[in-house]
């Protein structure tokens, strides 16, 4: 079993991120929204979960929804998922 590492996403993660969403949400086409948020919106927090050499999960948030100061690579803050979200689906393989 691999340890999960949480880190800020990189541009090079986009192909792996784009594979996650259809697998996690087969009944919804979220890729246009994800692409828009990652390329066209300011103040987006984008985190990936790495398991070994693979991206196993992705979380997006806007600073208005998740107001936290990010300082350094080790800052982590737990926040409850908004009602109606299915956060655990994001980390399924």
Strands of the widest sheet, in order across it, are 1-2-3
Q: What percentage of residues falls in helices of 4 or more residues?
A: 10-25%
Q: What structural class do helix, strand and pairing data support?
A: alpha+beta
Distance between the termini: 13 Å
Radius of gyration: 13 Å
Q: What sort of overall outline do the alpha carbons produce when their principal axes are compared?
A: globular
Compute the number of structural domains: 1
Return residue spans where pLDDT drops below 50 for at least 5 consecutive residues: 69-93
Task: Summarize the entry for a quick read.
With 93 residues, the chain is of the alpha+beta class. It has 2 helices and 3 strands, in the order βααββ.
Structure description:
This protein has two helices and three strands; from the N terminus they run βααββ. A three-stranded antiparallel sheet has the order 1-2-3. It is globular and about 35 Å long. With 93 residues, it is α+β, with helices and mostly antiparallel strands. 23% of the residues lie in helices and 24% in strands. Mean pLDDT is 75; it is low at 69-93.
Any key phrases for this structure?
93 residues; alpha+beta; 3 strands; disordered C terminus
